[in-house]
Write a structure and sequence with these properties.
The complex is a heterodimer of chains A (510) and B (318).
Chain A lengths: L3 H15 L1 H23 L5 H25 L4 H5 L3 H6 L4 H21 L2 H10 L4 H28 L3 H30 L9 H16 L1 H9 L10 H24 L32 H10 L2 H27 L5 H26 L2 H5 L3 H5 L5 H14 L2 H13 L1 H14 L1 H20 L6 H55 L1
Helix pairs in contact in A: 1-6, 2-3, 2-7, 3-6, 3-7, 3-8, 3-9, 3-11, 3-22, 6-8, 8-9, 8-11, 8-12, 9-10, 13-18, 14-15, 14-19, 15-19, 15-21, 19-20, 21-22
Chain B lengths: L8 E10 L3 E11 L4 E5 L6 H8 L7 E6 L2 E2 L5 H4 L2 E4 L11 H11 L4 H14 L15 H13 L5 E5 L7 H16 L3 E6 L2 H4 L5 E6 L2 E7 H5 L5 E8 L6 H7 L3 E6 L5 E7 L5 H10 L4 E6 L4 H8 L6
Parallel strand pairs in B: 3-8, 3-9, 6-7, 7-8
Antiparallel strand pairs in B: 1-2, 1-4, 4-5, 9-10, 11-13, 11-14, 12-13
Helix pairs in contact in B: 3-4, 4-5
Classes of the chains: A mainly alpha (510), B alpha/beta (318).
Chain lengths: 510, 318
């Protein structure tokens, strides 16, 4: 008889091997690499192998970070959501068997994705500019990062109720991991640095060491080191060892906390967040009565967070802008003037708007599909377009704070916007950028109707990779090339539009 | 002579396939009369949900025709959707909403004004006996309660036709009975109801007519009485005597056309099966009386609903 842990491992592996998307993903990755390889070979640049290899490693890093957050963090939560974790616990499987059996297959799946690229990346050596030790070191770095991230996500998956929460928590930990030493570290250390006569305190020394260790453990920093000319570092660097050790530590944490966080099995439903009900004393912040655009009302309150989320965005975005302004003044060692503050505000709010658009696009229909409410809205009288339009309007309402910040930034520094727009319009970047954003949103919506999770990340990576192909005619062919790029982007968006419509009807009828 | 009213639902030769191979429906034909409850019964995978989803305009008609209120739904959804209320088998309620918010949302989605909504919601909550739970979160309600709220949701736009897909699935016996009572009340209010189930006996007391479907094919469609009465060459009657008559069984067996006689142990009761074209009930009754037996009752044996269902459908799932 098979060991219980092997049974669970092979079940998960078999399940994934039966899914079409597993192979589609591998094929897409290989095709992308092949295109990248061809582009590098014919680009005529010096060291095309290095250019190709840097791009490949960067895409891998991005892919692991963005998709891994949701992919790995659903290991235990998917069993919680399907109410099957209790059944697993009733078998002879021990907690460690469940954790190992469930997570190992996903880690192996991710490592396979890296492995499948190796023969192609070897071609980078023949193109020149990259050595075998750089390739080996890069893939070891990425492999160790997969081990770290998967176990971090496993821990989050154990302690969280739903896959979404687990993905957010993993993302939060990762942000701390990547940005603590570079962004928050210097600020915290500066605050703690005493006036000149006093020496550095114990806390300051400890924090300085800690930030240094975190910084060295970052795969991003390690990749930078590997890609430097004349790299001769060890294959098993501090980053590789520390990532594996951290991964093991998170696995231990997940194991130890498994019993406590999974002692009760509860049905998981869509969250209401902090939205008060009608009978509450805070009913002003509640959903109130449905509007004459009821789907806009529903999505504004129950998907985008409603009035409270709307209000909270002002201090949140404001503090991000203040932090960036402070950081800028520290780096430039001069006071930030109104013009610079305006530019920072506009850039930050544009990034926030794009992020919010992507986030809402990924949830626009996903939540309806997930909670099986799609048929009930698809039978409403009126065309599908009306339903979609109302839903988009509800989500756009929640973006008003970001839009207001953009307007405030514009009022502080109108010239910055005019100059930027003029430059972007002249080079065609503005038009292509807007078209690319539309394509990205369409693709996100479409993928969210196919994938249970990670649509936003996958869509971002696909658009990021494809942006080069779409922009190629514009780069090579001037105005007519821009037109070709524009037509290609619009045609793709129209294709996605039709596909979304068909998919919605199909899902509603399933 | 007054013209017979047109059926609300007319399905003719409806076929549907998923992909290239799996044929879910094969020439389904049935109709549902106005202000009636029509049961749509079949084992799991028979094609009930597919048919209901086509009627609800969620799946398109691939072959055949479907007319609701006289409109061909392949050509127009516009006149139909506002007149039907569809309750899918998966409840699919917004579980983060309160009962009131949920009903208010759907009433608004069907174009009801703020003023109208208050009275509509109050009415449907009263009908489903959910007034006291209107500020409760849907996720806190039991499945039976959620079914009631779903039914209330289906009624907020006062539809003429209700399409209910397995509404009693997962309910306890009490909740089932209460649901059936609500449906009877709705029929009294003039609604036409098409209700699917995989348990025929469940719909026995409720439905005026029934369609039995198995593996995408209609096995029976018509009145409930027709289903339980007997069709074919043989007929079975129950004869009950006031006291035992030992020679009667032999007399009956000797009659031409009688194929089987079953005697109830320790009771003066016989189950007589005969060929309709060889012998009739008068001849049998005459022979019984001539044998000196005292007849207490003589009646046609009706099939049990479950028996009829088992006869019409094949074992196994598709």
């Amino acid at each position: 008889m098979k060991l219980p842990v092997i049974a669970l491992f092979s079940r998960t592996l078999r399940q994934e091997s039966r899914e079409f998307k597993t192979y589609a993903l591998r094929l897409a990755l290989v095709v992308t690499i092949t295109f990248g390889l061809s582009a590098a070979a014919f680009s005529g640049r010096s060291a095309p192998g290095l250019t190709f290899f840097i791009t490949t490693v960067f895409i891998n890093f991005l892919f692991i970070t963005l998709v891994g957050c949701s992919y790995f963090s659903s290991v235990i939560t998917e069993e919680k959501e399907d109410l099957t974790l209790g059944l697993l616990k009733m078998t002879s499987l021990s907690p460690v068997s469940i954790l190992l059996g469930k997570s190992t297959s996903k880690v192996i799946g991710a490592l396979f994705l890296l492995l499948v690229q190796l023969p192609f990346t070897m071609f980078a050596m023949t193109l020149g500019g990259v050595s075998l030790s750089q390739i080996a070191a890069s893939y070891l770095t990425l492999g160790a990062y997969v081990v770290f991230l998967s176990n971090l996500a496993l821990f989050c998956s154990v302690i969280c109720k739903s896959s979404r929460r687990a993905a957010y928590l993993t993302g939060f930990f990762l942000m701390f991991f990547f940005f603590a030493p570079t962004l928050w570290g210097p600020v915290v250390l500066q605050w703690l640095t005493p006036a000149p006569p006093a020496g550095p305190s114990l806390v300051l020394n400890a924090l300085t060491t800690l930030f240094g260790l975190i910084s060295d453990a970052s795969p991003a920093a390690q990749i930078q080191k590997i890609m430097a000319t004349g790299f001769s570092g060890p294959l098993f660097s501090y980053q590789v060892v520390s990532n594996i050790v951290l991964g093991a530590a998170f696995f231990l944490l997940a194991w130890r906390s498994f019993g406590y966080f999974t002692r009760e099995q509860k049905e998981i439903g869509p969250g209401r967040g902090i939205l008060p009900r009608r009978s509450s004393r805070l009913k002003f912040f509640g959903a109130g009565r449905a509007w004459s655009w009821p789907l806009a009302w529903k999505d504004f309150h129950f998907l985008a967070g409603g009035k409270i989320a709307f209000i909270l965005k002002f201090p949140l975005l404001g503090s991000v802008i203040a932090f960036i302004a402070y950081f800028t003044s520290e780096v430039a060692r001069q006071k930030v003037d109104l013009k610079t503050l305006g530019a920072i505000t506009m850039i930050t709010s544009v990034i926030a708007i794009c992020a919010e658009l992507g986030f809402y696009a990924s949830r626009l229909f996903r939540e309806e599909v997930r909670w099986k409410t799609l048929p009930t809205i698809m039978v409403l009288p009126g065309p599908l377009g009306k339903i979609v339009f109302q839903k988009i309007a509800g989500n756009l309402l929640c973006m008003i704070p970001s839009i207001l910040f953009f307007i405030a930034g514009f009022l502080m520094s109108p010239q910055s916007l005019f100059i930027a727009l003029r430059e972007m319009a002249r080079s065609g970047v503005l038009l292509l950028g807007i078209c690319m954003l539309i394509l990205f949103l369409y693709l996100t919506v479409l993928l969210s109707l196919f994938l249970r999770r990670g649509a936003l990340g996958v869509s971002f990576i696909i658009v990021y990779i494809c942006s080069g192909f779409f922009a190629l005619p514009a780069v090579l062919g001037g105005v007519s090339g821009t037109l070709i790029s524009f037509v290609c982007l619009i045609a793709s968006s129209v294709g996605f539009h039709i596909a979304i419509r068909a998919r919605l009807y199909r899902l509603a009828g399933q | 002579m007054a013209e017979e009213p047109k059926p609300v639902v007319e399905v003719e030769n409806l076929s549907y396939h998923f992909g290239s191979f799996k044929k879910a429906l094969k020439g389904v034909t049935f109709s549902v009369q106005r202000q009636s409850i029509h049961g749509f019964v079949g084992p799991n995978g028979a094609g009930k949900t597919t048919t209901l989803k086509i009627l609800a305009t969620l799946l398109r008609v691939q072959a055949g025709s479907v007319r609701l209120f006289g409109y061909n739904i392949s050509q127009t959804h516009r006149h139909v959707r506002s007149r039907i209320g569809f309750m899918p088998d998966e409840l699919g309620v917004y579980r983060q909403m309160t009962v009131f918010e949920y009903l208010d949302f759907f009433a608004a989605a069907y174009g009801r004004s703020l003023k109208e909504r208050d009275s509509i919601i109050s009415d449907v909550l009263a009908l489903t006996d959910m007034q006291s739970r209107k500020d409760d979160f849907l996720k806190k309600l039991s499945r039976g309660m959620q079914q009631r709220v779903s039914l209330a949701r289906v009624l907020v736009h006062d539809p003429d036709l209700l399409l209910l897909d397995e509404p009693a699935a997962g309910l306890d016996p009490r909740a089932r009975i209460e649901l059936m009572e609500i449906l009877k009340e709705l029929r009294r209010m003039g609604k036409t109801i098409l209700i699917s189930s995989h348990i025929l006996a469940e719909l026995g007391d409720l439905c005026d007519s029934v369609t039995i479907i198995d593996r995408g094919e209609v096995k029976y469609t018509g009145a409930m009485e027709g289903l339980v009465s007997q069709e074919g060459e043989l007929s079975t009657y129950i004869l009950e005597l006031t006291e035992e008559q030992p020679s009667l069984e032999q007399v009956l067996r000797a009659m031409e056309g009688v194929t089987d006689v079953l005697k109830e142990p320790e009771r003066p009761q016989y189950e007589i099966t005969f060929r309709k074209d060889n012998v009739n009930t008068n001849a049998i009754l005459r022979a019984v009386i001539e044998s000196g037996a005292q007849v207490a009752s003589f009646r046609k044996k009706l099939k049990l609903l479950s028996e009829a269902f088992m006869t019409l459908t094949k074992p196994g799932v598709q």
